[in-house]
Amino acid sequence: MKILMVFTSHDILGKTGRKTGFWLEEGAAPYYVFKDAGVELTLASPKGGQPPVDPKSDLPENQTDAMTRFKQDPAAQKDFANTVKLKDVRSQDFDAIFYPGGHGPMWDLVDNPDSIALIESFYNAGKPVAAVCHAPAVLHRVMIDGAPIVKGKRITGFANSEEEAVQLTDVVPFLVEDELKRLGGRFEKAADWQSFAITDGRLITGQNPASSTAGAQALVRLLSEMQPRARASSAA
Question: What is the pLDDT of residues 16-48, one digit of tens each?
């Protein structure tokens, strides 16, 4: 299995002047879910190189086992420091695409033409697309057969109540929950900060940082289920 992980390159939180980026747990936890499952990983970002880490995600109260493992893993740190440029990757080289969240993607990935074209290419080729927390916002301009990719789909993402809790409702370009609903998505959510992931066909979404492991595990499961079918069809 080959999975492409797409990170943000954006590090400024709107007009606040504060730093943002990707949420460290949402990078580290899926990275290890994939690595431990034997997945061949490629990491990409719009600018390439080291994606910015949201400093809040590394506060003492936000530490997780995956983050501890990452900090003791020079090979993983090297992978993160050397992401390839998003414009240089092609869907035909991978089996699935996964977007970690954090607030950064709200500025540099939601309207990124390379990202939009890539997601459409993956999905049109019958390959899974997965995103957690704020990253489902990257789907908001993705069109499949003339309609939004999320239309009619069970979907989740960072909830309005969670955005309100971190006091960034008026800072983000749009609210993930509101936008996914506006596009016709059948938005669902669990209690704030609880793990919650949804698989609807080839679209996988997770609600918040706590959902990053579940979202990654769901993607591995889906790919494992798809592989025998792919082998059977190619044999036929």
Answer: 999 999 999 999 999 999 999 999 999 999 999
